Structures are given as structure tokens and as C-alpha cells.
UniProtKB/TrEMBL annotation, chains A, B:
InterPro entries: Isoprenoid_synthase_dom_sf, Polyprenyl_synt, Polyprenyl_synt_CS, Prenyl_diphosphate_synthase. Belongs to the FPP/GGPP synthase family. Its cofactor is Mg(2+). It comes from Enterococcus saigonensis. GO terms for molecular function: (2E,6E)-farnesyl diphosphate synthase activity; metal ion binding. This is Farnesyl diphosphate synthase. Gene3D superfamilies: Farnesyl Diphosphate Synthase. CDD domains: Trans_IPPS_HT. It is an enzyme of class 2 (transferase).
């Protein structure tokens, strides 16, 4: 088994246990629980938990329960955002990760509440995680900033308003930095904070996350143009159908690949710089980034 | 001016400033900000902040900035819940506090996001409020528990599933304890915690809040039957139109009044007991409860 496969098997299982057990413990309504677990269990790459845990590992720190709980919280935030994003009032998506979307399965009312529940329980779990109070409170602040009206929700709002318009590169970057970038940045910087790194290191992690987030978003846009529905587990060509601004639509496919490659190179450059300080085991994070961006580079 | 009017003028203004300033500072998207402020500015009774602040005052403690911030956070949670509750996918309400509902004004997509933004920013504001870290973290935990899938969201979920069914008293009480009761309980117990009261006092506040929450909910159900749209600022007869279970529908109007009166008496009984310990200035809370329940008692 590869390094990454072994790591996923050992550590993602723990993150999933934290999510499921907490939701089961905290939820008094059975249908609400089913609806939340449906989207949690639908899987996905668990990218944000992986980035968080791979960052901690890079600093040669042992992974403890409190860290799994932070990873679980950020994945719950991500999952809620997908449920709300798929709603008829938003993107009106029918398929997600190869399965009917939450509202197709449970109705739009329950899906709205499942999203609200996951969002709230993410803060609940984080606030009672096994961490020192000051660090815990700092992570609550950071997660709220990343996912609220300065971060992810602001990105979604700009995205909703951008439908049908062709945006300029700057506006598109604004949206992606918030929609995808903010939670990536939370995950990677939280890894640094949990590994007790000093401010300058956390700042460098933030720059790394910015580049990686953009690379990932361009890759996502490219896949929507070039992959099949089967490969993606969601309907392709959807961005075009919604008249959404994408990198390929704005820059063309070739130029988008170039920009993607540049952001990827900048990401790796940050990892090298970190290696000069305290990031002594970058292999796992590098393998993860390779895996993440493989499909896009293969085109 | 009455005691309560003076108190509102002085202290609610501060809570509103905390909400508005924080949202303005934190929100990068202009339409999202407008949509969130639209519902915040639509007013309402600010019941949860008032209960919180009146409880602190009852313990003869001075109100400081951190307490306004906690009050602002709970009001933001309440406001998000109204926005989502009014959505077409939920109750599909057109009118709230005499104004078009958020989704009528901004569309269902933006209203969903305004709710998500308010919910997230509530935890953001609370987590960076001017309080000792341990108390702050405890309040984040309590607010999340009260508003998540153990509390308010669970109540909403049960409510959605109950449409069209006539519930038994026990099921209806379950729903109300969560939909309304949980945030009332948070507000009143947070008042006790902020006033540095010991556990036994906070436990008694929790019992008080349970009775008050039920009294308030029965009153709300009664008003939907007996008041006019003009008096309420929202459409009356709406519960019946949605085939929602209400106390008057289950018990009849007279028996509902009796139950309401019993819960109100139990609330006052708790205040008396608290007075024997450290709740030396109950007048403000009592006046607030009088005002709250006046319309129902007048029928």
C-alpha cells in the first residue's frame, strides 16, 4: 500500500468515527440524523481533513484525538455547504458523489435543516474538542471567519450573483478564494497551529493554502469540461449549463492548464521553504497534492 | 418612561450596534450584507437579548460589552432561524414583522445564504467576545447545543415532519421545547453564567426558562387564532392553513389559556425561589414577562 493509502486507512477512519458518533449523540430527531449522515456517509475525498492531518504529520507531530475532532468539524462545514449549494434555490443539482443529492432524497426543507444542523454541530464539536481552551477558541474563531460572510458564504453569495455573467479573472479569483480557498486555508493553518508552529510558519502555510486552493479550483473547472459524469460522480457540463464563469470559459483550456501548473509550482515552492524551517516530513502532503491534481495534469 | 422602556432604550441599542457593526466589518459581499441586515433591522421584540440582560440585571451585575456581544449572538441565531423557517422549502411565509420575508425580497438562494451567514457569524462574534476564554468557550458550547440538532434545528425538523398530523401533547411539547425553549434557556442561563452564579442557581434558571418558553409558545399559538394580521405583523391563521398542530387545536382555546396561566405561574414561582438566593432585583424580568404575555392574557 502507498504511504497515502495507509495514512487514509488509519486516520480518516478516526475522523469519520468522530463525525458519526458526535452526530448520533447530539441528534434527537431520527430523520434529521439520517439526512445529515446520508451526506456525511456519501464520502468524497475528505480533502480538508487530509490536508489538516498531513500538515501535522509534516511537522513530525503525533496525531491526537483533538486533532481528529478539528478535522471532523471542517469536514462537517464542507458537507453542509454542499447540501445547501445543491438546493433547488441554489444550483439545483440532482447528483452528488454518484448519489441523489440530499434534497432529492429528503426534500428541500429537511436538506436545509440538515445543512443548518451540520454547520451548528461543527462548532459544537470543535468547541468541546480535546484541546487547550485558548487554542480551541482560536480555532473556533478561525473556522467561523473562514466559513462565514467573510469567507465561504461570501464566495457562495458572489457566485449566486455571478450566474449568467462572464466575470473577469479578478472577480473569479475572489469567488474561488472564498468558496474553496477559505476552508483549505483553515485546514492547513489549523494543522500548523495544532503542531504548535510559530506565527511566521503559519503565515507561510496560509500562502501555500492560497495557491493550492486556486490550483484545485482550476482543476475542478477543467474536469467539468473534460471528464465524464461517471468519472466525477456528478453531472458534467453543469457549469456551462448554469452559465457559470469558469477558468476554461474565460482563459481557454490551454491557458487554464498553464495557470493551474503555475499555482501548483507555487504550492510546492512553499513546501520547500517550509522544509527549511520545521516541515521535515513533506512526503505525505506532496503525495496528497499529486493525487489531488493528477486528473487535471493527465489531460 | 417605564423601567422596561428605559432599559430597552439604553441596552438594546448596544446589542443592535454589536450586531450591525460586526456584520459590516465581517462581510465582503454587499448583497449578502444587505440581506442579513434586512432581517436584523426588521426588528422584532429582541426577546432573547432582553431575557439575557434582564437576568444579569436581576443579579445586580453591571452590563459590560462582552454581555452585549453574547446577546447579539443569540439574536443573530434567532434571526437566521426565522429566515430559513420562512423559506419556500419550509413554511413558505411571505410576511414577517409587517415586511416581506427575506426570500421575497432577495430570492431564496440569497436568503439561504443570509441565514447561513448569520448562523456562522453568531459563533464568530461570540468566540471573539470580550470575555474570559473559559466562559467564552462554555457559552459557544451551550449556544451550539441549544441551536443545533439537539435543540432548535431538531425542533424545526420535527415540526416539518408533523405538518398535516395532529400531534399528542407530549410530541408538541417536545417540538416547542426545542424550537423556542432551547434558545430561551440559553439566553436566561447565559445571563446567570455571565453574572457568575453558581451551578444550583443556573439549574433553577434553566427550569424557569423551560416554563417561560412553553408559556410563550402557547401564547403564540393562541395569538395565531385570536389576533389580526395587523396586530401580529405576520399572516394569522397560518398554522391552521399549514395544518400545524397547535395548543388551541389540540386542547381548545380555554384549556390552552389555563395551561398558559399555569406555566406563567410556574415561571414566577422560580423567580421567587431565585429571590431567596441571589436574584435581588427581579422587577425588570417580571415586567418583561408581563409585557410578553399581556396580549394572551387580555383575550
Amino acid at each position: 500500500m502507498s504511504l497515502l493509502t495507509t495514512f487514509k486507512k488509519e486516520h480518516l477512519t478516526q475522523v469519520e468515527i468522530e463525525m458519526r458518533n458526535f452526530l448520533r449523540q447530539q441528534t434527537t430527531d431520527e430523520t434529521l440524523l439520517k439526512s445529515m449522515l446520508y451526506s456525511i456517509d456519501a464520502g468524497g475525498k475528505r480533502l480538508r481533513p487530509l490536508l489538516l492531518l498531513a500538515t501535522i504529520t509534516g511537522f513530525e507531530k503525533e496525531i491526537k484525538r483533538g486533532m481528529y475532532q478539528v478535522a471532523a468539524a471542517v469536514e462537517m462545514i464542507h458537507t453542509y455547504s454542499l447540501i445547501h449549494d445543491d438546493l433547488p434555490a441554489m444550483d439545483d443539482d440532482q447528483l452528488r458523489r454518484g448519489l441523489p443529492t440530499n434534497h432529492v432524497k429528503f426534500g428541500a426543507g429537511m436538506a436545509t435543516l440538515a445543512g443548518d444542523g451540520l454547520l451548528t454541530e461543527a462548532f459544537h464539536l470543535l468547541s468541546q474538542s480535546e484541546l487547550d481552551s485558548d487554542l480551541c477558541l482560536l480555532l473556533v474563531q478561525n473556522l467561523a471567519k473562514a466559513s462565514g460572510s467573510f469567507g465561504m458564504v461570501a464566495g457562495q453569495a458572489a457566485d449566486v450573483q455571478a450566474e449568467g455573467k462572464q466575470l473577469q479573472l479578478q472577480e473569479m479569483t475572489y469567488i474561488h478564494q472564498r468558496k474553496t480557498g477559505a476552508l483549505f486555508t483553515f485546514a492547513i493553518t489549523a494543522g500548523g497551529l495544532l503542531a504548535q508552529q510559530e506565527e511566521s510558519v503559519v503565515d507561510l502555510l496560509q500562502i501555500l493554502a492560497g495557491h493550492l486552493g486556486l490550483a484545485f479550483q482550476i482543476r475542478d473547472d477543467l474536469l467539468d469540461v473534460t471528464a465524464t459524469t461517471e468519472q466525477l460522480g456528478k453531472n458534467v457540463g453543469h457549469d456551462a449549463a448554469l452559465n457559470k464563469s469558469t477558468y476554461p470559459a474565460l482563459l481557454g483550456v490551454d491557458k487554464s492548464y498553464q495557470l493551474f501548473a503555475a499555482e501548483l509550482a507555487a504550492t510546492k515552492n512553499c513546501i520547500e521553504k517550509l522544509g527549511e524551517v520545521s516541515f521535515a516530513k513533506p512526503d505525505l502532503l506532496l503525495t496528497l497534492i499529486e493525487e489531488l491534481t493528477l486528473e487535471a495534469r493527465e489531460k
